[in-house]
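Running this now, will post back.
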Amino acid sequence: MSISDDSAARVVTASREIAAPAATVFELIADVAQQPRWDGNDNLAEATPTRVRAVGEVFSMTLTTGQVRQNHVVEFEEGRRIAWQPSEVDQPRPGHLWRWEIEPLGPSRCRVTHTYDWTQLTDEARMVRARTTTSDRLAGSISRLAAIAEELG
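Update: finished.
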């Protein structure tokens, strides 16, 4: 496998339309305390009650295992895109990234794309878990997010 092929295999995405306003969907993502409600990996127990507003912010999440992760916001465009890199508390970031992109399709519809990018992941101990993060798992998060957003309207 060439380097470029390996890199392509390390970027996993899922996308779908949601029958809810883009602002509603974005708010559910940016209000990180909401994320355990719709996480398709079922590994989030709770998150700090924080509304992300800018690159450089850091928020914490407690996993179902009890471990705490700090999430470093590396991309942010209000209403459109948010991405973060997780790390253990006060440790260097191992190099993987979670991204959410919202594209408005009208007043009550949007397209949501969820990406897991582990092209920069260097920690061998995390590779097995990274490989299990498939587009189906990402789609699971989008489906749960859609159900909540569509109920809120």
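Helices lie at 3-9, 22-30, 35-38, 124-131, 135-152. More later if anyone needs it.
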